[in-house]
Backbone:
């Protein structure tokens, strides 16, 4: 039962443009959301997170937006750079099981020069 | 650099032959996790250790066991691997079980297990 869904397996964006990665969730108990980035042959690395008390969190070129009513979050990367090419995983957790991360299947982003 | 190390990076085993995957960390974190990621699937938490306290996820098969002899090392034992256990196994650590960017999970590069 996949509670976190990333419906786009891949995305291609030109360098300098905006990349938008989407994530949907089904469990209304989720109240903390994270994005991880994974390069080939490396483990996922934490990128940015957002608590359900917020609807936006920004860190440099990366911004995460949360729409609780739609159970949807998105990661915006602007401007996109070739080094951003990686697999991006969305993850969510709930206060009831604070440590347990529920991951999506990932979206492979390719930023072309 | 402080990091999470997984050895070997690739492991081939025979159907039914016990296999052990290794994880070590230099972060001195209290918590160590094991995730299973099958091809094109999301990483799935199998279990975690908080110090010496072991916590199994409800749907983790009995075939999977874990040992944590000290803070730095954690092992994943698969007693009788089946073809369906072929996957990437990711080890992760965190300082505590709290949530927040300060308590993020740090992942190793993974061990890809092939079952023949």
Residues:
């Amino acid at each position: 039962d996949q509670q976190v869904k990333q419906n786009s397996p891949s995305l291609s964006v030109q360098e300098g443009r905006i990349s938008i990665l989407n994530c949907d969730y089904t469990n209304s108990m989720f109240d903390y959301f994270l994005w991880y980035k994974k390069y080939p042959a490396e483990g996922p690395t934490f990128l940015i997170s957002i608590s359900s008390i917020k609807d936006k969190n920004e860190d440099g070129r990366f911004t995460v937006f949360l729409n609780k009513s739609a159970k949807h979050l998105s990661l915006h990367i602007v401007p996109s750079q070739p080094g951003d090419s990686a697999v991006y995983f969305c993850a969510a957790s709930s206060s009831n099981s604070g440590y347990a991360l529920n991951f999506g299947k990932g979206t492979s982003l390719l930023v072309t020069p | 650099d402080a990091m999470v190390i997984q050895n070997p990076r690739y492991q081939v085993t025979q159907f039914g032959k016990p296999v052990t995957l290794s994880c070590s960390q230099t972060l001195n974190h209290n918590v160590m996790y094991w995730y299973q990621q099958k091809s094109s699937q999301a990483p799935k938490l199998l279990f975690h250790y908080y110090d010496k306290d072991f916590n199994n996820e409800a749907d983790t098969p009995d075939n999977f066991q874990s040992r944590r002899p000290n803070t730095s090392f954690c092992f994943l034992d698969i007693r009788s691997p089946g073809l369906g256990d072929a996957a990437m196994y990711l080890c992760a650590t965190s300082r505590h079980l709290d949530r927040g960017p300060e308590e993020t999970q740090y992942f190793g590069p993974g061990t890809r297990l092939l079952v023949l």
Q: What stands out?
A: The CA atoms of residues 20 and 30 of chain A lie 22 Å apart.
